[in-house]
Design brief:
alpha+beta, 2 domains, disordered N terminus, KCMB4 protein, glycoprotein, transmembrane, potassium channel regulator activity, ion transport
Length: about 210
């Protein structure tokens, strides 16, 4: 029996391979759990119920209020500038009530009062020009032409998004790579066990031939 058990003991290389496989399996499972609890679930909840709709511009206006933004001019150079608030009011094909358009969820969280946040420049005048350019774009180039937007009547009835921050591709990658890690780990363990089993059988057949 002792002899038989010794035959089935793994070599150092096989032992390392098994440990690597189990490590990848554990890493894949932990990544899936971590992403699911900390990022994927909130992202899906953020998108939950949101559907695409056709939006039409009702009004484009600048408010008198200005908001602060932070610009960077080097490694140790930071400052605060200000930009005017642009509001784009739209009507969706799913509701007759006007709604405020936002670039995406991040912009909505950063400044829920405005439809556009310009790249923060050091000069307030440059920020104003960027906002004015965006205002002309919505007034003159888009005008009354319908465009696709994203609307959630239950969570945010007064806001619509021009694009989604968390689209299907991002969510797929967040699920795909931990799953690939898990499957590679399983494959390493299975191949190591199969290789050991074949080696033991080959050794047994070789001994039988010499008897």
């Amino acid at each position: 029996m002792a002899r038989s058990r010794a035959v089935y003991e793994y070599t150092e290389a096989e032992d390392k391979s098994m440990r690597l496989g189990f490590l990848l399996i554990a890493a894949g499972l932990l990544s899936l759990l971590g992403l699911g609890c900390c990022w994927l679930r909130p992202a899906l909840q953020e998108r939950g119920g949101g559907v695409s709709a056709n939006c039409t511009v009702l009004a484009v206006r600048q408010l008198g209020e200005r908001f602060a933004c932070t610009f960077s001019c080097g490694a140790a150079c930071r400052g605060t500038a200000r930009y005017p608030c642009l509001q784009v009011l739209v009507r969706t094909s799913r509701s007759s009530a006007p709604a405020l358009l936002h670039e995406d969820e991040r912009q909505l969280r950063t400044n829920p009062k405005c439809s556009y946040i310009p790249p923060c420049a050091r000069d307030d005048q440059e920020n104003s020009e960027n906002v004015t350019y965006k205002q002309k774009y919505w007034k003159e180039k888009v005008g009354s032409q319908p465009f696709t937007c994203y609307f959630n009547q239950h969570l945010r009835p007064d806001d619509v998004m021009l694009k989604r921050t968390h689209d299907e591709t991002v969510l797929l990658h967040c699920f795909l790579w931990p799953l690939v890690t898990f499957l590679v780990g399983v494959l390493i363990v299975v191949l190591t066990i199969c290789a050991k089993s074949l080696a033991v059988r080959a050794e047994a057949i070789k001994k039988k031939k010499h008897l």
